[in-house]
């Protein structure tokens, strides 16, 4: 490791959704010579002794920058590092590639906050003793690795099992949802809606399989924010967890290969960034060329690959109505006088936030109806998604700042059913703003 490079510390878990996104990103930046980082297993001792005092949240990943700044949240980590170390870039520039830039952010949001539901469900549904196929033993292994890293193997598994039977509520599952299963119910993922979520996930994977049959990454021959975002659901849950991983490998082999390529490990066959593919010249000398598609570059001229459009369509067809309803529900709640102005809002993605359960469960004021695969169901409002939409609104403003940018963006959005509704994002965000400080959200 070059000692002159800025050295970051990433606190993460191998089996964590958002850690997979950030780790692959940092690996890419380190490969490009921008920075160095150490990946540190975020044990409970470190979470409660270091992370929570710094950011007021126990979630991973969190990043400690060389100057001592803590950055919590996968998107903030990427934004922070892109500002500090612009090369190699992972987000196309607003002035030259506004459509590609916007596409990256839309896919990141879809991957972070919509694909999370099915990925979360698969991990825990197949971690119930009564359900076949079953990966309970593996789940014990991967959680025990974090929660009792100093114990021997069986001790690690036992400690995870205690967690599962205790606060995670795995044994009672949907009969008496608490812990993880309360989270699934709050996200609108129940045994009734599961087939619809499964259908949505399969449709997305089919579209990605088609795309990765043509291009090695979302935008061509190099990874971008869209790839790192998609790796959230796809690495730790859908590739690494055994039941989902079997389905991914057998039904979506090209997506599987893309996971290895983007994660940049065990990727010789998958071909990855920085890799050369060799042939021979007439004298049998090795001749190198970039190993990935599209000459090892993003597509030129701000082109968004045609095969990526069906993936973006899923954002507008499924997630966008839920986001609009999130804004309306949060706006109504803030206007109701029930919320202390400037006070805390729930901050978590996977489960209701402790202290906010009465608001975020049942028919509470921070719950709303949504639709998946033709089924109506109820879910919690996740105010973090409003913060993501504010960030997206900033990106959109940069992208349409001049005439040619607006033309490019409108051309992209007009190819997507309901796509042009995004141009009203600033108006949708009126009277509903959230502020993020460390891991806490405020109205
Ligand atoms: N928006 C955050 C989400 C982080 C998150 O929810 N992390 C999960 C693991 S992937 C976690 O730590 N969950 C534990 C909890 O919510 O208590 C990000 O993008 O980093």
Structural account:
- The chain is α+β, with helices and mostly antiparallel strands and 443 residues long.
- The protein is built from 17 helices and eleven strands.
- It has helices at 17-31, 44-55, 74-84, 98-113, 115-125, 136-147, 153-165, 180-186, 194-212, 225-239, 242-251, 253-263, 309-335, 357-360, 383-399, 403-414, 425-428, and strands at 7-12, 36-41, 62-64, 70-72, 276-280, 286-290, 344-345, 367-372, 375-380, 435-437, 440-442.
- A four-stranded mixed beta sheet has the order 2-1-3-4, with helices on both faces. It has a three-stranded antiparallel beta sheet with strand order 7-11-10, covered by helices on one side. A two-stranded antiparallel sheet has the order 5-6.
- Strand 10 (435-437) and strand 11 (440-442) form a beta hairpin.
- Helix 4 (98-113) packs across helix 13 (309-335), helix 5 (115-125) runs parallel beside helix 10 (225-239) and helix 6 crosses helix 7.
- The longest helix is centred in the last third of the chain and has 27 residues, at 309-335.
- It is globular, with a radius of gyration of 22 Å.
- It binds glutathione.
- Glutathione binds next to helix 1 and helix 3.
